[in-house]
Amino acid sequence: MAKIVGIDYGAKMSGNTVLAHYTNDQVTFSQVDKKKDADTWLRKELISIQADIVYLDAPLSLPAAYYNNGDSYHYREADKLTRAMSPMFLGGLTARAMSLKHALKPLTFHEIYPAFFQSEIVQSIHYKVDIHLFIAELHHKERFVLAQQPQNWHQVDALIALLIGTRHQENRHQEIGNPAEGIIII
Fold it and tell me: I need a surface site. Which of 11, 66, 119, 125 has the fewest CB within 10 A?
């Protein structure tokens, strides 16, 4: 069985990048320390836990216009449909995500969007308001066991990324966007 991980991808030195994965059927979190290079840390973590498939909360492609196929230089179809930020607005984060995917070619990467999953699947008024109430509602929609309670919203988003990955592996997911340009999985 493939080893999947969910990642909430933050600014490079912010300490907001979190990796969630299953250990003995329980979700565990690893979070980079503030002022530590998140990309270097993430490469080491993914190799250490022997990840196979990564579900990443960051754009992994550019709008089709950059490949002479369309006229939107700001948004991909997936961004429009999910109301996500433009990969171009996210600039450096998008470049880092695409670079990470390129550097770790043996791994399979999928783009996900926790906020859209929350709005479409969980539909909680507690998202980004109350972690404990939100986790209870999330648990009502998806099955999982936590090794420890999430301590911040970055850990919650990494958990959502992992749950999206689980749904994808079980063929319970949705794919949004144009496959030729890049899709977002929820």
Answer: 125
